[in-house]
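Reviewers of the previous submission asked for a worked example of the structure-prediction workflow described in the proposal, so we include one complete record here. The input consisted solely of the amino acid sequence. No template or homolog information was supplied to the procedure at any stage.
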Amino acid sequence: MRASVPVGIAVRGRRGVGAATVADALSAAGVVVSDAGEVVVMVIAEVCKPEDLAVLAELRRAGVPVLIVFNKADLAGSGPGGPMATAQRRAVELRALTGVPVVPMVALLAAVTLPAELVAALRTLAVQPADLTSADAFVAGEHAVPHALRARLLATLDRFGVAHASLACSRGADANELPGLLRRRSGVEEVLAAVHDVAAPVRYQRVRAALAELRALGGDEVGRFLAADDTVIAVMAAAVEVVQAHGLVVDPGTRPDAHVRRARHWRNYGRGPVDALHRSCSADIVRGSLRLLGAR
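From that input alone, the workflow returned the following structure tokens.
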């Protein structure tokens, strides 16, 4: 059934922002990455340039759901809380500028493989720190770890990853733990959660399209399926994901008064100045709430 097929994600970005690395990280996490994806992950780094804004405006005019990944977040600066906290603040500013969700990421660290010689180098750095004030200082300075090995570390982890991996080694982390630690530092889990949220309208519209096709087929069995509690509540759940992804709150209560309150709220919401997608979602939330009330 088409409604159950994973949503395809297209990853785009200017040259040099790390779009290919983001795409590889998402693929490694099980995301279906495709040039013809129904959702676009737009990768930027450092700043959102006019050409980024032009592409974003075109996608929004076409009604394509978009997530901005603010890659290379470790280079965002050294404000309060460090580079990732600085990147989070930049992401809030970028969301206000663009009107779409923005998530920081260090894609280089999302799916790292560390051969034994790099782990050994990190262990040496844990007890004999190197100069990480710049890439040149790290590679060129005198140190027990050879220059070539330091250059490989930098290409694999960048300074942010080297710092965190060597710190983890100093605290007793073993080689098997390092990839997971670096993955958590990468922000990929937050990106995956945001991709899931941004794709909510696509999943909902697929469900509605599938139900419309079934309705056109007709027949008693189809009619019973469409009217079944499980079907109505499943459609409601898909609608809830859409409105929650847009920052709205749906009462999760399970008592009868919660079902009534939810139905009333979303009936009124759907009668307000909302677009067709949210009007449809509100109707399905009302229908599902009343069905849950009746089941009680």
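The domain at 2-109+186-198 is CATH 3.40.50.300 (Rossmann fold). We consider this example representative of the routine output the project will generate in years two and three.
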